[in-house]
Amino acid sequence: MKSFLLCSALVLLGGCSGPSAYHYTLSPAADRTPSAALSALPTPSAAKAYVLGPVTVPSEVDSTMLVTREANGRLLLLSDDRWTAPLSAHLQSALGLELTQALGMPPLQNITQALAQTTATLIQVDVQRFDLVPGQYVALDALWRLRFEQGAQVLTCFSRFKQNVEIGVSALVLGQQKNTQLLSAQIAQALSTRTAPSEASCTRT
Q1: What's the mean per-residue pLDDT of the chain?
Q2: Rg of the chain's alpha carbons, rounded to an integer?
């Protein structure tokens, strides 16, 4: 009883707290060597002004907590393992950083003002699958659209990425970092060359 009262008192003073949550990011270190997919892109001077709109993800995984999927399909939230922001916002930030590295320029921040410019390209990304299966694989499926200068064509593409992973949360994060890099590389290629990446299924309208 005395130990319980002591711990209760320490809680009020900031003691007896549980372990701090671990925070993870989909953005690798900024000083890393560019991936082969990014290195193969045209020179940064080929890039034009672009806007990265809000990224959408399935509602069941749009959380700061990592959400894993078990073999039976059941979802499990990892309360002690978290993204640095809700997944949709974090993915938008991570893709923006990857596009900046690939193209040599960041996305325009003021979306309303940027879209008023006839030369800005709007990038929309709808992540339809973001699976973390411990000890097996991570998967990311995304439908993305490039709306080039006002009045120009629209390129709509569907990309699928899957990485086999070992056991552990870090392996899950590293796998989705790779998927995020590959997705951004395809988007950067399409933005720079105005052609559909061979790895994605695309249509023009």
Answers
A1: 84
A2: 20
Q: Model pTM?
A: 0.82
Mean pLDDT of 145-167: 91
Greater pLDDT, 21 or 138: 138
Q: Residues of 75-104 as b/e, b for ≥16 C-beta within 10 angstroms? A: eeebeebbbeeebbbbbbbbbbbbbbbbbe
Instruction: Identify any residues that bridge with 24 across adjacent strands, giving them in sequence order.
Output: 83
Candidate CATH numbers 3.40.50.10140, 3.30.565.10, 3.40.50.10610, 3.60.21.10; the one for domain 47-204: 3.40.50.10610
Query: Which residue, among 82, 81, 161, has the nearest Cα to 125 in the 3D structure?
Result: 161
* Residue 54 confidence (pLDDT): 94
Distance CA 170, CA 166 (A): 9
